[in-house]
Amino acid sequence: MTLQVKNISKRFSSFRPLYRQLLLPTGKAKDIKALDSVSFTIEPGQILGVAGANGAGKTTLLRIIADVLEKDSGSIFYLTGLCGGCENLSRRGIGYVSSDERSFFWRLSGRDNLLFFARLYGLTSKHGRARIEVLLKQFDFEKRADDLFKNYSAGMRKKVSIIRALMHQPSLLLLDEVTNSLDPESTAAVKKVIRQYVSAGQGRMAIWSTHRLEEMPEICDGFLIIDSGRIVSQGAIADFKSGFKGEKYFASCC
């Protein structure tokens, strides 16, 4: 199936401090346009790189696609390829790695956390355990899987987040700043696993969000650059390699 995102827009109302509400009780908060008519398509087997400075709208876009944030307008759906039909995007078909993950249970081990989420995804106990063991081995995490989650480093927590996103074998992976906190060896391993997973067939695809331009050619098939909620450039990764200059959109990254 093909993922099509069409004209997605999102506004947030800025917060008015209490003293301003008291001084100007009839005043209105200004709207912040986080996304403005964002559209793109991802074909099966592709990884789309989404880049932009901090605050450009990358996380908002992924949260909307993951169905954890409501959009103001636009549409998101799968094209089945069968007579132009389409299907709604289901949460069971999505694996989401947030840039700021807070949903794990810190007093449980990494393995117990994964088993809990496996059942939420509808995996049987036997299937869930088998799938988790495969992924723990892929990420070289077997020896630390039974440590308490609260004792993990930031990089180890990120690995558990990625394993959770993969264990129910989703059609769509949403990866938000997934290499943050990872050492170079772990970063290389994650890119290898994600590339193999998406390339394995079965209509899989991924969105790789980052503010690191150097990551784009290493794993992505296509790219789009977001600035202030709008797409300012997009195309095949070959176009990116051939001389795209996007530094001006990343001034606030470093």
Descriptive notes:
The chain is an alpha/beta fold and 254 residues long. It has one domain: Rossmann fold (3-Layer(aba) Sandwich), CATH 3.40.50. The protein has helices at 18-23, 58-65, 110-120, 125-138, 154-166, 184-199, 216-219, 237-241, and strands spanning 2-13, 31-42, 47-51, 73-79, 86-88, 94-97, 172-176, 205-210, 222-227, 230-236. The strands form two sheets. Strands 6-7-8-3-9-10 form a six-stranded mixed beta sheet, with helices on both faces. The protein has a four-stranded antiparallel beta sheet with strand order 2-1-4-5, with helices on one face. The two termini are 37 Å apart.
Summing up helix and strand content along with how strands pair, one would put the structural category as: alpha/beta
The strand line-up of the biggest sheet is 6-7-8-3-9-10
Shape: globular
Report the strand count. Answer: 10
CATH topology: Rossmann fold
Domain tally: 1
CATH class: Alpha Beta
What is the chain-wise order of helices and strands?
EHEEHEEEHHHEHEHEEH
Task: Characterize the largest beta sheet: strand count, sense, and whether it forms a barrel.
Answer: 6 strands, mixed
> What's the end-to-end separation, in Å?
37 Å
Radius of gyration: 19 Å
Query: In the CATH hierarchy, what is the architecture at level 2?
Result: 3-Layer(aba) Sandwich
Q: What is the CATH homologous superfamily assignment?
A: P-loop containing nucleotide triphosphate hydrolases
Strand content: 25-35%
Q: Percent helix among the residues?
A: 25-40%
